[in-house]
Amino acid sequence: MKMSVTKERKELVALQIRTGDGQAKNNNVLTELVDRIQKCIGNITCTSSGFRLFLTTDSQEVVQLLQNSYPDLLLFPGQIFHIDGDFGTPKDMDSAFRKVILDHMLLSRASKVKLSSKVVSRV
């Protein structure tokens, strides 16, 4: 799979946002979290003339909120699974682990990475 990140020669900035076991379902918590993430992105990218933002997260809500602010947000498609949860079918399990591997590959190739702690991301 070729990434437009390398083709466009933009700096890859990666975020791993972990919210834990559904703790970010509350709209107030999500809004505060997204505000902190956006400040963090601003701090990380203030020295970049061009960048591509990659996100890996355990929260579909975080994906949706950040896609509203960053329409070019780079992420691998697929259902979000928790490693200690039920994966369903072997095909679902294969898809889940493929996504995890691809997410980690891009995290490793980013020039700037921000990792959050689990308990409702302390970005």
Structure notes:
The chain has 123 residues and is an alpha/beta fold. The protein is built from 4 helices and 3 strands, in the order H-E-H-E-H-H-E. It has a 3-stranded parallel sheet with strand order 2-1-3, with helices on both faces. Strand 1, helix 2 and strand 2 form a beta-alpha-beta unit. The longest helix has 20 residues. It is globular, with a radius of gyration of 15 Å. The protein starts with a helix and ends in an 8-residue tail after the last strand. The N terminus and C terminus are likely disordered.
What is the rounded distance between the termini?
Answer: 30 Å
Report the radius of gyration as a whole number of Å. 15 Å
Helix content: 40-55%
Supply the CATH class.
Answer: Alpha Beta
Largest sheet: 3 strands, parallel
Indicate the proportion of strand residues. Answer: 5-15%
- Average residue pLDDT: 76
Uncertain segments are 1-6, 119-123
The secondary-structure class comes to alpha/beta
| Integer tally of domains | 1
> Any idea what the CATH architecture is?
3-Layer(aba) Sandwich
**SS element count, helices:** 4
- The coarse overall form would be globular
Topology as a string of helices (H) and strands (E)? HEHEHHE
**Count of extended strands:** 3
Strand order of the largest sheet: 2-1-3
Write the CATH fold name: Rossmann fold
Layout of strands and helices, then pairs:
Blueprint: H1 4-8, E1 11-17, H2 27-45, E2 51-57, H3 60-69, H4 90-109, E3 112-115
Parallel strand pairs: 1-2, 1-3
